[in-house]
Structure formats: structure tokens, C-alpha cells
Amino acid sequence: MASTVAIVGFLLAAYSIVANDAIQTLGTFLSSNSKRPWWILWAFACTVLLFVFVYGWIVNDGDVSFGRLSKFPEPTGGLTWLHAIPPLVILLLTRFGIPVSTTFLVLAVFAPTNMGAMLTKSLVGYVLSFLVGIGVYTLISKSFEKQMIDSCDKPPSSRWILLQWTSTAFLWSQWLMHDLANIFVYLPRHLNSAYFFFATIVMLFLHAIIFSRRGGEIQHIVTTKTNTQDIRSATIIDFIYGLILLYFKEYSNMPMSTTWVFLGLLAGREVAMSLLLRCRPLKEASGIVFSDAGKAMTGLIVSVVLAFGMPVLLATFGTTSADATSTSNQPEPLTKDSIAILPPYETEAGVTGLVRCAGSDTLRIVFERVQSELAEVQPGLELAIESAGTETAPGALISGKCELALMSRRMTSAERLAFRNEFSENPVEYRIGLDALAVFVNQSNPIEGLTLAQIRDIYGTESESWGDYVLPPFPNKPIVTYGRNENSGTRTFFHDVVMQRESFRSDLIDDEDSAAVVDAVGRDEFGIGFCGMGYRIPAVKSIAIAPHEDGQYLNYFVDDYKDSPDLAKRFKNVYTGEYPLSRMLFVYARKPAGETLPPPVNAVMKFILSQQGQHAVLDSGFVPLTDELLNRQLRKLSAEYVPEWYE
């Protein structure tokens, strides 16, 4: 199953990244405390780790990556075994003491279009760190560092020990906020309590292994530098490194290579000390600097090859789950013809009753179509649909006001916990189709695309005008923003991914009805609105969206195939997750262990996951499931299926 791939990928990434990146960060701490028992150093580092973990998990609703993965959506088609290649490569390179950038190696595979932005930020980080290193150590080498070298045989004072452990805690916390994204990219973006506990135990255990080995091969990068084993020198290095990471953390959410920052700082320090103190010949110091840079460049080259070679491997060898029963290539997304190949829904004798559905307005049009078509094949079965918004769905399911909770996003960890507290079991999660959140403008507006940052500015700043984005003769008028109301899962998704949880402008015109949002934009020449792609009308057009300035502008459909009956081609950007606002559509239900769903509810879900049901998804303007994803949902209807703890 895909969750198995996620856990295996997480375990490999955790071990390889702890062995590579974490030791680069804690290297001076280990080096300067080599005479202390390893378990004391481990306990200290893991105390900081736990604090950052718990803080991020609570404050960010289960997101321990601190928003660093907002531009790296979970692969819509699921993880494959090929996604485990990057951490395996890191393990191999780490064995040779090569300080590779795990940011490039791991994250670029999940979103190759972000490679340019990550590389730019990392290059700036290396240059800035190099210059800071030269500047600071030019000022202190002849005074501070020379004194440290001359007195290196003397034990450090308790004041310096306290300062060093404080600087290590500060640096370690900043690194974790940067690079936890590289590890947790394999897991759900918002961890439930079971996932959080599992990940915490794994991280504590892996750090124990690495600390007991005193850092392993990568530690050599630190110990070859001048006087890094002195607690006082190590303290200065850690404070500078931590401050640089803090600056870049606040600068933007785009992940960067902390490895390059680390190497740049040590390089600048080594050059300055060689010039001023003559601790080693400048030629030798330069050789060390270029050797480290060459190793980092090796990692970059491997990263680029993986990032752009992985799609080819996925197309040739990939499957979308770990437990795929076929050895064939990755299943193609359903075309209209392949939907017809699916087994049709078979009428179930004696099944009658009312099934109450509550929640997402986005899913309303799908279930209205299902209601109409199901009435023809299962006449005794009725649906009651209430579409007040995704936020109302979990409460309705828990309180017994509905049998099916319709949601345009996944349940949060808090919502799942509330369900478990009520029923002592997990809700069953069904994925019934794919959607793309579209950003619509009036058909008369000439704009073709915006970046996520530009859309965030438009929805967060009341002074924005079209003249900031469109050339004359289009009028330079204030932008009027439309969107969904606070009960909407669509709004929550937009708020998380686009707004990055920043506030909406106060004059946002919101509505509980997606169709009303699109109609308003169609009537307003200067309007812009967001909702599910299925609500598009002739009076509006969807714009292409880029994850950042250097990213590729993509619409939810591929321009060359926007009218093609081949859904694999038409909605390629949604199936692959390359379109930044791709998402799944969910239905949740209560299914006691060892039982099937109640017959009327079971019949509705069977219909949705049948030939007719997937046609209803498609005809409602959304994207049907791949055959592998669909079969995975069908297995959840069996009495034997029990929702996993990590769902």
C-alpha cells in the first residue's frame, strides 16, 4: 500500500538526513565535547528536538515542517517505490563523506519546478555565509582566535561551556525548522497523533545511533577545520550559522540547502584565518575549500539527474503503490473509454432508505448527479444533501446528523481525534475523485497567469490594482476579490497553500456557494475568485499559476489537450500534482470494525466507485480516480478493512 512506501521513505530519509545534515549542524558541538559521554550530548540535542517538534505540531496543526512543504504537494497519484531512491543515494554518498544537499536530492524529486528557486536561495546562502565568515574572522582572528589557539590546552571556563550549549540549542532549533521538511515530505503534511508519536520515536532512536558513532564520516568535514574542537571557537561558529539560518527562515518559505550555508561559513572562516594567522598555508586552505565545494557540487549534479530523471523512471517502471498486484507500468489515469471498462453498478435487491450527506459545497454537484442517476438503478434509495461547507462535515458525522461527510480536504488531526473520542475508532476515508482549485478572472481580462505570491498579495492587500499586473488598455482599477466563506474546505485549502495562513483582506466578498463566486466574477470585469474547477462558466477563464517567479506557469488542464477525451493528457497537471492547487475530494463514514457500511450507505459508495459514479465525477467537472486509486477505495468497503492508525 502507498502508506507503506511513505513509512519506508520516511525511515530512509530520516536516517540518511540525520547522518548527513544533522551532523553538519551538530558537528562542532560533537567535536568540542568529544570527551563527554555520547548519551549526555544525545539527551541535550533531543530535548531541543522534542521542543521544536511539539511546538511545530501544536502551532501549525500537525505541520512539523513549519510550512516549508507548502510548495511541495503530496503526489496526487501517490508515492511509489522510486521515491525511495533519493535517501538511498544520500546514504551512499554519506558513506564517502560527501556533504550533499538533502534539500536538492529529496525535495526536487517531489517538485522539479522548484529546483531553480531552491538553487538560487542556496547559492545566495553560500555566498552570504562565505562573506560573513571572511568578515567576522578578519575582525577576530588576531585577537580572539589566536588567543584560543594559544590557550587550547587550558580547560574552558564554565561560562564558555554554558555559551556553547546555548549556541548549539539555538542553531539546532533553526536547522530543524529548515530541514525537517526534507524528512517529513514522505508523510502527510499534517500529522495525526499516532504519526507524530511514531516519527518522534524514530527520530530519537536514529539520533542515538549517530551520536553513539560520534557523527560518522561527515564529522570529518568539521574536524579538518582549524581549531573547531575548541569550545570557544565552536560557540562562535554555531552562533553565526544559527543567525544566518534564522535570516533565511524569515526571508521566505522556499527550502534551501543548509549544507551550502554551512560550507560557505567554514570556507570564509578558513580563508580569513589562513591569511591572518598563517595556521596553514593559503594553498592548503584553498584546497580544503574547493574540495568541500566540489563534493557539494557532486551532490547537486546527482540531485538534478534525479529530479528530472525521476519522471522518466516513473513513466517507465513506476506503480502508484507499494502493494500493486501487477508488475506492469504505472496505471494510466482513466479516460472516458476506460471508465466504460469499469464494472457498472448492479442494483442491490431490497436496499432502500435515506442516506444523509453533509459538508462540501464543491461536492454538491457530484452528489446531486449521483442522486439523480442512482434513483434510476436503485429506486428505493434516497439522498439528502446539505452543503453548508466542509468545516461542518466532521461535526455532522460525529453527531449522527449524516452518514456521509463530504470534504474537499482531509480531516485534520483534531477532527479525527474528536471522532475517535466519540466512537473509539477511526473514520473511514474514501477518495472519490480529484479536483483543482481554480483561480478565475473575467473573460475580458487579458491576464494569463500569476505566481502564488502574487495571488497572496492580491487576496491580502486591499490596495492592489490591475495596473500592477496587466498592461493598458485594460483599465487600472482596484481588484475585487471573491471567494468561499469560512465554512468551506476550499477556503481552508486556499488559506493554507496560497495565503500560507496569512489573513485575507477585509473587503473579500465571500459566499457559501461556489457557483455564486464564479457568477460574480463573470459579471465583474475587475473581479478575481477561487473555487473548484468544476464550476467554470463561459463568462470566466482560469489563469495559469506558477509556484514562484522562476517556476512554470500551469493551468489545471494542458493547453494542447484541453478538449481531448484522453483525460490522462488533458488533466496531466492534476494527476501529477504539478498544478500547485491540485487536491483530492474526500468522503468520510463510520464503519465499525468487522462490519460493512450500512446497506444504503454501502450502496451509495459502491455507486460512486463504479462506472456510473466515476462518470458522474467527470461530468460534474472533476477528474476521476486512477484505476489503482479506485481499487484501493473499493477494498475499504469490505468488512475486513480497518482504518489504519496512520490514516
Please, could you describe this protein's structure?
With 647 residues, this protein is of the alpha/beta class. It is 53% helix and 10% strand. It has helices spanning 2-32, 38-59, 85-95, 102-110, 115-150, 158-184, 193-212, 219-223, 231-251, 258-277, 282-317, 336-341, 364-377, 393-399, 413-423, 452-460, 489-497, 514-523, 567-570, 572-575, 599-608, 611-619, 627-635; strands at 353-359, 381-386, 404-407, 428-442, 449-451, 480-484, 509-511, 527-532, 540-542, 544-546, 582-589. Strands 1, 2, 3, 4, 6, 7, 8, 9 and 11 form a nine-stranded mixed beta sheet that branches. The chain has a two-stranded parallel sheet with strand order 5-10. The longest helix has 36 residues, at 115-150. The termini are close together. 51% of the residues are buried.
Helix and strand arrangement:
Elements: H1 2-32, H2 38-59, H3 85-95, H4 102-110, H5 115-150, H6 158-184, H7 193-212, H8 219-223, H9 231-251, H10 258-277, H11 282-317, H12 336-341, E1 353-359, H13 364-377, E2 381-386, H14 393-399, E3 404-407, H15 413-423, E4 428-442, E5 449-451, H16 452-460, E6 480-484, H17 489-497, E7 509-511, H18 514-523, E8 527-532, E9 540-542, E10 544-546, H19 567-570, H20 572-575, E11 582-589, H21 599-608, H22 611-619, H23 627-635
Parallel strand pairs: 1-2, 1-3, 5-10, 6-7, 6-8
Antiparallel strand pairs: 3-11, 4-8, 4-9, 4-11
